[in-house]
Amino acid sequence: MAIDSLMGSHSPVVIDKQPVHERDVVIAWQKVLDRNAQETLVGGPDHEHLRVLQFGGQPVSLWRPAGHVYTPPSPTLTESFGDEVHLAPECPSNLRDLVKRTLVPMFEGKGSQRNVLQHRWSQNSTNPTTFIPLLTTSDNKPLAAIYRHPDIAEVWWLPVDEDQAGTFDFNAWISAALDAWHRADPERFPGPPDWARSEQWMTSEELELQAAVGDSVAELERQQTELGKKIDAARSALSEAQARHDDLERMLLTGQDDELVNVVHLTLDGLGFEVEDVDKKRAEEDRQRGGMARPKLEDLRLRDPGTSWQALAEVKGYVGGGKTSDFQKIGRFVGIYQLQNNGSLPDATWYVVNQSLRKPPNARPPLMEHEAEDVDVFADSFNGVLIDTRDLFTLSQLVARGELTKDEARRKLMSSSRRFTLDEEGA
Questions:
Q1: CA distance 321 to 113
Q2: Measured between alpha carbons, how far is residue 204 from residues 16, 94, 192, 211, 213 in Å?
């Protein structure tokens, strides 16, 4: 056992059959037992001097403040959920590396359910009570701690499960506890486990090097703290950006109805097109005129600022794929356009679709891949072009990253026939 090489006098005990008051330390693995092999406690009359090092299990040293008969004894274990663990700010500097090396890895891959220590006494009590967390959850619930109360000198409670007995470094924690207790009570603990490593018996060179180690550890912790702050700030900024772009560009991949029309409008406007919301303009004209509202037309009308090029755009968002019935509606819009333009077709008629929108974009099929004949008629009759909003999103991001100019992006859209796709160079 780890104890053999660290303590001169030790023995396993049954608590109520041994003079525990003669002991200085009780090391508990999960629990302590009485003569009937029942779980019992440590602490109380004649035990106030004891130190306890407990590996797992319900705490074996409990305390209830005098006169508080309705206050449950504490500390006790309660259930908590979460994935993060944090080194407590109160953790003594000489234990921080040990906590990170031996305790933090025990929570990796263990799932979100874990036990935390709940204590109910005040740290400001007139009684000598303290509670120092070593490791906590993200909401500051202690996963490991050092505490003391009037019935016992000190307890180190560490969250070691029974299935971790074969891999846990008991030796390191026993050594650390004995060293701390030597510094606190050198009469009961006359020397650290390895006296040659005590500052009292170190050479000046060793003391200098030990100080250098301490300085380096402190600098490492300072840098880790600074990096932690930078990471937290970057994560916060990322979270804000994600929420903002969910309501803007990414709506091309998630939106329907007016939200989708608005973001397509903004995207095309950002590429340099002159974009007009035809229905919004007609509705305002109808309100000013006081007449009946006219039937709706296409969602958007586009012009290229440097040429005479014009296009109509109908924008749809569907859980499924694009609908051939939309081509009939678009045909009506094109017919009205022709009446207004001496029978001429628009240079392009775009059917812009956010399709299969509940699927991840890279899992969506090609737009209207099984309606090739209908797509051909749409293309031939109306200068029709299918535009998947996935491609529109990608095109806008190429411009945002500076990989395409706005003029180049517009030319790609304006020169498309039948179906807009990004070539390999632009993809």
A1: 42
A2: 48, 20, 19, 11, 14
* pLDDT at residue 111 is higher than 90: no
**Among the residues of 271-364, which ranges form H helices?**
278-289, 325-340
Domain residue ranges of the chain, discontinuous segments joined by +: 2-197, 202-246, 251-419
pLDDT at residue 424, rounded to an integer: 45
**Closest-CA residue to 312 (of 381, 395, 396, 252):** 381
Q: Which CATH number fits domain 251-419: 3.20.20.150, 3.40.50.300, 2.30.110.10, 3.40.91.30?
A: 3.40.91.30
Measured between its terminal Cα atoms, the distance across the chain in Å is 63
Quick one: which H or E segment has residue 221? Answer: helix 204-246
CB count, 10 Å around CB of 39?
Answer: 13
Q: How far apart are CA 147 and CA 213, in angstroms?
A: 28
User: Rounded to an integer, what is the distance from CA 9 to the centroid of its chain?
Assistant: 49
Place of tokens 């737009």: 367
Pairing of strands 418-419, 300-303: unpaired
In whole angstroms, give the CA distance from residue 312 to residue 317.
17
Q: What is the pTM of this model?
A: 0.57
Instruction: Say if CB 281 and CB 293 are below 8 A apart.
Output: no
The average pLDDT across 325-350 equals 94
